[in-house]
Amino acid sequence: AWGHRPAEIAINEGGLPDERVCVTGNPRFDLLQQDLRGIYDSEAHRYRKEYNQYILINTNFTSANPFDEDTLEKSDSSKIIYENQLYEQFIESIKYLQENLNRFIYVIRPHPSENHKEYRSKFQSDSNIKVRHEGDVLPWIRGAKAVIHNSCTTGIESALIGTPVISYRPIVNKEYDHELPN
Fold it and tell me: What does the alpha-carbon distance between residue 145 and residue 52 come to, in Å, rounded to a whole number?
């Protein structure tokens, strides 16, 4: 596991025996050190060439916008309510940014377990908002002017790679927010 909390989850919720779980760190984080992060530069350059100056918005609203509706049954109702409120705040903030800071392209990169079609339908008429989920996120982060997220590992990765990062927290719920990436 990459940290003590994920190790606890693996043991307590995943049913793994203590002796089978080791905290080792995250090799992805190691690759973000200044002398190694250049491995992402060629792809980052390709993204900058395609989108010029872009702000990357990483979403992580699997309860509010699930890829598979069956996953909702596994979430408790207070988490679903909270994530729905947060999701709506993110949608409004993206609209606000594209109307008021329209010199940027906004690249929404949904979490793999989210319904990407929802974002495409909400922003299909906005020429400076793109919904993309292709390749590794690290070159996207490396090429971005800034990254906006909430409770997402990409917040940590952005800080480590040297890209300005904004943890957008229009509402806070200590039970469901992940403090480290925020």
Answer: 9
Give the mean pLDDT of the chain: 90
User: How is residue 176 written in tokens?
Assistant: 């469901």
Q: Report the run of H or E that residue 85 belongs to, with start and end.
A: helix 77-100
When mean pLDDT is compared across 41-50, 67-76, 136-145, the lowest value belongs to 67-76
Say how far apart CA 82 and CA 123 lie, in whole Å: 23
Take residue 114 and report the two structure tokens written for it.
Answer: 């989210």
Q: Are 61 and 154 in contact (CB under 8 A)?
A: no
CA distance 105 to 123: 12
Instruction: Please report the DSSP string for 119-165 in residue order.
Output: HHHHTTT-TTEEE---S-HHHHHHH-SEEEESS-HHHHHHHHHT--E
Nearest CA among 160, 149, 158, 157 for reference residue 182 = 149
Look up residue 9 and give its DSSP letter.
Answer: H
Ramachandran category for residue 127: left, alpha or beta (phi over 0 → left; psi -120 to 50 → alpha): alpha
